[in-house]
Amino acid sequence: MGTASVPLPKIFRTSSFRLTLLYSGFFLFCCLVLFLVFYWAAADSMARQIDNSVASEIGEIKADAKTQDIDSLKSTVDLLAKTSADFSYLLQDRDGHRLAGNLPAMTPTLGISEQPNQMDPDEGKTLRGRGVRLPNDVFLFVALSTYQMHQMRQAMVKAFLWGMLVTLVLSLIGGTFMSLSILGRVEALSRASREIVDSDMKRRIPLRGSNDEFDHLVVSLNAMLDRITGLMDGIRQVSSDIAHDLRTPLTRLRQRVEVTLHREQDVFSLRLGYEKTLRDIDSILEIFDALLRISRLESTSPATQFQPVDLTEVLLTAVEVYMPITEEKHQILTEIVAPGLTVVGDRQLLLQLFANVIENALRHTPVMTEIQVRGLSTDDAIRVTVEDNGPGIPETQHDLVFRRFFRCDPARRGPGSGLGLSLVAAIAACHNCKVTLADTAPGLRVTFEFPRMTRT
Amino acid sequence: MNILMIEDDPETAAYVAQSLREERHAVSLAKDGPEGLATARNGGWDIIIVDRLLPELDGVSVVRRLRAEGIEAPVLFLTALSGIDERVAGLNAGGDDYLAKPFALSELLARVQALGRRSRTTVTTVLRIADLEIDLIAHKVFRGGCAIDLQPREFQLLEYLMRYSDQVVTRAMLLENVWGLHFDPRTNVVETHISRLRAKLSRGDKPDLIQTVRGNGYRLRALA
């Protein structure tokens, strides 16, 4: 038996790999957000540092400007411009003429601003400074180069990009490994289950003992296999039972035909042979009919057709049908049935159920046995008992009697197909009726508990 | 009787038709639903035998349509489906009787006979065979003027036998019509009840009116 199998997916199409990719993508996005915050904070802090230095430098010049006239201020600024390595200065008058410093004249801008560096116009080498108006109506601009800040930013971006790249590669590698390992376990699982289905249904998938989700899956799969084997065994059992139990009547039938054919010469004996043959065939057909009924009851739910049924009437009819037979066999059949018992069900099926049980009782008990049918209503159920004081059934067989073809007499002498109580069980089950057997020492009590009809 | 049989299996149809003809019935055959419906509409049938599973139009639909058109001929369903719901469905559609395949030919013949008789039954209050008389209203039975005491079910049994007197009544028919059992108990229930009835009816060395038809059933006759 070959199993249809979907080939294992390529590694990049496995769901674990896709999940890894998705996760790395999300992780990288988080890194980016983190970086942006960090970058913004660092850049801001560097700019503020520049601003602070510039502000203190301006503060000093301002202090000087309070005491000096414009010329000495000019020379101070020039001196500063010459000596300072970092700062650049510009002092210009109201008309925009440069008075001192090492920066060219500019449009006076008060407050912080960034200006292109005329002397070193490379990219990123701008000046960041602050313009103030001093007494005497002169404009002072002090600035620092942003070069360092720029370098720093570039280094950060570069480091970040490299970092991202490494993370991406690592996560791809990790994802591949993870997917491969999961894929491997899935493959092992599916190979094991395919082998089991193809060859040996008794085998089970081994557990790794790690108690992880795969073990969990394995437990479920094994449980499923158990159930399947159980059902298969059941079917095998029933079919071999059928084959076995039909052999007997068929053999008898064959013998009868053979004997009739070879031995009987006169028309009357031939007729008789035919009649018996017909009866044998009928009994085989009956077995089939019973089997069909049972399997139909078990497989479909007739409950949709169920209606309230007068159980009292059903019980009385069943008792009445068998009354003359028990009298003939010198058995005693009595009933104590409460009036007005009603259950939801099918009258025919219920009749058949109780007919089978009563028939069973009178068939398997000796002369003078008392068989009593009781029907009563309890608080939570409608209870029917069929009780006899015959030999009873050994307790060990109580569960077996409802099986198809089970017969207490292993030699299978006497009439009966071993299907009567299976039919009883099937009918009871579709009526939600609980059946229990009890030993009454001596005798057998079969109890049926029907759910009470809920009034609507 | 004029019998129409709607059956798709030619072998079953031929076999049943032959047996019915041997019993001096006129038989027409139809092999599927539409043909059966068309033939049935011609009218003049005493009994229509319909297979439940027919090609194109199933037996239940055929009968439902016939009943809707006012064709009242008794219908006997044949079926390979022997579930209780199938029987109910067939009878709800307007069928009068129901027989599960495989069936004994004698069973079919007996039922056809009974159905034919049923369609001609007139309302009576007293049934009489030889010196046996039953009063359906007073529920009283007399044999040669002497009252016989019967239990209610025995009365029903006798009534059924008398309604269909001079014809074979099978065990299954008795189980269905007297006790309402649509299955066959494996124990010889009917035999036992019949023998009790027999004993009560022929008390005082009177001739036995209930004849046993071997392998088939029983027949109530004026001349035993």
Would you give an account of this structure?
The complex is a heterodimer of chains A (456) and B (224). By secondary structure, chain A is an alpha+beta fold. Chain A has eight helices and twelve strands. Chain A has helices at residues 15-67, 70-83, 147-198, 213-263, 267-299, 311-328, 347-363, 420-430; strands at 88-92, 98-101, 111-115, 127-134, 138-145, 307-310, 332-337, 342-345, 370-377, 381-388, 434-439, 444-451. In chain A, the strands form three sheets. Chain A has a five-stranded antiparallel beta sheet. Chain A is rod-shaped, with a radius of gyration of 51 Å. Chain A starts with 14 loop residues before the first helix and ends in a 5-residue tail after the last strand. The model of chain A has no long low-confidence stretch (mean pLDDT 83). Chain B is α/β, with parallel strands linked by helices. Chain B has helices at 10-22, 33-41, 59-68, 84-92, 105-120, 152-163, 171-179, 189-201; strands spanning 2-6, 26-30, 47-51, 75-79, 97-100, 126-129, 132-135, 140-143, 146-148, 169-170, 210-213, 217-220. In chain B, helix 4 (84-92) links the parallel strand 4 and strand 5. In chain B, helix 6 crosses helix 7. Chain B is elongated, with a radius of gyration of 19 Å. The two termini of chain B are 26 Å apart. The chains are: A alpha+beta (456), B alpha/beta (224). The A-B interface holds A 275, 278-279, 282, 285-286, 289, 292-293, 296, 302, 305, 317, 320-322, 324-325, 328, 346-349, 351-352, 355, 359, 362-363, 415-416, 420 and B 82-85, 88, 100, 102, 104, 153, 179-189, 192-193, 196, 214-215.
